[in-house]
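re: the backbone from monday

yeah here it is again, tokenized this time
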């Protein structure tokens, strides 16, 4: 038998023996395809298009670092479609009531009203995020860990006036939603027609924040029950 034949038989035998040796890789396991890690969902950053950022009651409340705060700001100010729905609804309301007749009632007037409302909401969110971020205060609404309609309603009302510091335990006055409402209402006076008094517009925004903030918190608190009730119908 030639050396070439012996070499071929040796290679063939080696190929048959190696797969059954202890610890040897089997078949398709020789080149395993690495598992693609599933993307982790950050349960500390939740933004609803209607009632904003929140923390579910089953999720521990953790203080946000600067990276998370920035992601939350971008999501609730620019990338969540809800803010554009809100802007559109307010702009339609202004269009129907012909707010600032100098802008007209056509598409050009609607675009100006839409842009004004959008600037108002962006400024409001920016002030809230910047202020809470500088002091390390909590910008999100935390659903009550309590049970019952009235305790949860009480929590929703109180949280419109107080928030937590970076310990997520000590309470602080809820300053920045009101400051944001003031700045957001004042900003459009720079281009709105007429002689708008910025002080009056700012105070109006602060006063309006009281019922709006409570209403948003209430919806956010009972959103799971509201959603289940809607789905049953």
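seq for it, each position gets an aa:
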């Amino acid at each position: 038998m030639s050396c070439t034949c012996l070499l071929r038989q040796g290679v063939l035998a080696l190929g048959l023996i190696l797969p059954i040796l202890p610890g040897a890789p089997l078949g398709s396991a020789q080149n395993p395809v690495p598992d693609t890690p599933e993307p982790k969902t950050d349960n500390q950053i939740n933004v609803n298009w209607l009632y904003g950022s929140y923390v579910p009651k089953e999720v521990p409340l953790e203080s946000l670092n600067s990276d998370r705060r920035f992601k939350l700001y971008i999501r609730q100010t620019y990338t969540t479609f809800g803010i554009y729905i809100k802007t559109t609804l307010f702009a339609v309301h202004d269009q129907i009531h012909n707010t600032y007749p100098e802008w007209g009632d056509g598409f050009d007037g609607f675009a100006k009203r839409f842009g004004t409302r959008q600037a108002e909401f962006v400024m409001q969110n920016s002030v809230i995020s910047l202020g809470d971020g500088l002091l390390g205060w909590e910008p999100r609404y935390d659903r009550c860990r309590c049970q019952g309609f009235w305790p949860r309603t009480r929590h929703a009302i109180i949280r419109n006036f107080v928030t937590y510091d970076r310990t997520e335990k000590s309470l602080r006055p809820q300053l920045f939603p009101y400051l944001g409402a003031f700045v957001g209402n004042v900003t459009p006076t720079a281009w709105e027609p007429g002689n708008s008094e910025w002080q009056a517009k700012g105070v109006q925004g602060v006063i309006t924040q009281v019922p709006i903030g409570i209403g948003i918190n209430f919806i956010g608190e009972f959103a799971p029950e509201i959603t289940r009730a809607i789905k049953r119908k």
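The mean pLDDT is 85. The radius of gyration is 29 Å.
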